[in-house]
Every structure is written in C-alpha cells, then in structure tokens.
Amino acid sequence: MNTRLQQSDFLPGNAAGQPKALTAYNYIRHAIITMKMEPGATISEKETCAELGVSRTPMREAVLRLAQEGLVNVVPSGGTFVNSISLRGVIEGHLIRSSLELRMVRIAARSYDAVWDRDFDLLMFLQGDAAKRQDYDQSFAVDNDFHRLICAMAGFPDVWQTIHNATGQLDRIRRFAIPRSGYFDEVEQEHRAIYDAIRAGDADRAHELLRRHLDDIAAVVEYVFADRPGLIVQEPGFDLSTLDVMLAPAAQ
Questions:
Q1: 232: nearest Cα among 79, 91, 31, 75
Q2: Lower Cβ count inside 10 Å, N or C end of the chain?
C-alpha cells in the first residue's frame, strides 16, 4: 500500500488543520530538541497557551505526551521542567531506532516502487537547500523525513511514529551535533547511497549502508561530551566507559 510521505513534525508552521494538542506537542518538542528550551528550563503553561492560542486541556495533553517520552518532568504543584539529557535514554533510543529501521530498509528494498522517487528527490532538494543556507533545523527535519520515508516505502509508516516516540533523548544530541564539520555533505551522500541501493532492490547493501549511517552515534555522543561537558547526564552502568559495548555496530 502506498502511503504518501507527510510533512515533518519537527518544524513549526505545519499546524494547519491538526489537533491543538498536537500543535502544542510539536511546538514544545521542537524547542526542546533544538535547545531553545535547555535542560532545566521551566515550561510556562500560561505563556505557551497564549502564544499558540490553545486552551489548557490540549496543553496538558501535550505535556503528558512529552513526559511519557522522558523530555519533561511534571512536578505536582511545582511546575513543568525540561529534563536533562540521559545517556541511558540516548542509548535506548538508538537501540530501538536501529533495530526497527534495519528491518524496514530490507523490506523497502524488496518492495521498491518508483512512485517514491518524487518524495526522495524533494527531500534531497530540501537537504541541499538547507546546506546552502546552513539551516540546521531544516536539515534535521529533512534527515528525519528521509528515515520516515524508508518506513513508508516498506509499507509500515506507523513504525516511524514508534521510533519518534522512543528517540527524544537521542534526537537532542543528534540535533546538537549538526554544526560539526562535514555534516551536510556527509548526510546527503549517505542518504543518496542508501536510496540507490533500495532502488536497485539490493536489500543487503541497503541494510549495510544504513547500519553504517546509524552506527556513527558513538562519535556523536563523544562529540557532545567534548563540546558541552555536562550536557549529557551519565548514570550508573551508563557512562562513557560503556559506549563501546552499548553502541557497538549492529550485527548484520
């Protein structure tokens, strides 16, 4: 079944016609992922409702969803705060994402349909446009939409929502690391190679290319630790010394 690729949830401005709770959720999540709301920041329910033109009920629904994803902490009678970035949460998000996407890319290659080429070409145009303008937010959104496209091509678009719900902590460090040297060219080249393998029906090559693409997360974590010490909270059993074990490349 062909399910057309939908607009990204990561950029503001896509709220037309969507439920108000989803508008509030997307707005706050985007602010958290892009560090416009840093760890420890207070989320003002009153101010956010006024800014978005929503009532308290959809706002609270949005906050509940964000709390379930581990992005905010709701203190009864004490307010709502942006959670710290948990290394355990980053690792967990990566494990879920890689496990599901590596299955999706094999299915996508085995069931390739040229109808998806238009979506891919549009994403590559947007990726190139973001690179020219050094627009990190658009680049991050398009990056995610490419991976969403893989799930849609495989016939399981809802799998991307499962990944999205599990990767809030992971997304925060991925977005933070985008300004690192070489990111724009590297991601575009890797996405083109993965899609070419899918288009060729080469499931093994598509799987291997995607595995390499996803398994650079250890380098991203180390970059964030070096660039912003203290941004990621280490927990017992989940610290820098465990990265090699926890984030070892997935077996084919």
A1: 91
A2: N
For residue 204, what pLDDT band results from cuts at 50, 70 and 90?
very high
Lowest mean pLDDT among 60-69, 115-124, 230-239: 230-239
What is the distance between the alpha carbons of residues 84 and 227, in angstroms, rounded to a whole number?
16
Structure tokens at 105: 């890319």
Q: Which of 180, 188, 162, 158 is nearest to 225 (CA)?
A: 180
Domain with residue 58: its CATH number is 1.10.10.10
**143 or 248, greater pLDDT:** 143
Tokens at 173, concatenated? 């460090």
Same structural domain, 223 and 104: yes
Kindly report the backbone phi and psi dihedral angles of residue 80, in degrees, each rounded to the nearest multiple of 5, phi listed first. Answer: -120, 130
Q: Is the dihedral of CA 215, 220, 221, 223 positive or negative?
A: positive
